[in-house]
Amino acid sequence: MAIKALRNVAKAVNRIFGEPAIRVRFDTDTEEPVSVIFQESYADFDIDGVQVSNRQPTAWIHDTVNIDSRDLLRYGGVDYRISYLEPDGYGLVRLYLELD
């Protein structure tokens, strides 16, 4: 019961916060519109200005898209390769991205 409720929450989150992107399929090179929740890359610095950590860009996508790690994601006119996928078990998949 809880999983079904969380899957509905995932759908609502994607519907509310999702932004348009393009999925380019690796096998056919066809372009498909998708909705993603995108997070830019960033870096953390300590008080002395030394970089202590960084994060690559990520995107959340609904698991019904069945995206493949070999697909390309185009967001904001920029092409990203998918480093790896991380399903959350509740209806969303986190994509770890790198510039193509």
From TrEMBL:
One Pfam family this chain carries?
Phage_attach
Q: Which Gene3D superfamilies match?
A: Phage tail proteins (2.40.10.180)
Specify the taxonomic lineage.
Bacteria, Pseudomonadati, Pseudomonadota, Alphaproteobacteria, Rhodobacterales
Protein name (Swiss-Prot/TrEMBL) = Uncharacterized protein
Q: Which domain of life is it from?
A: Bacteria
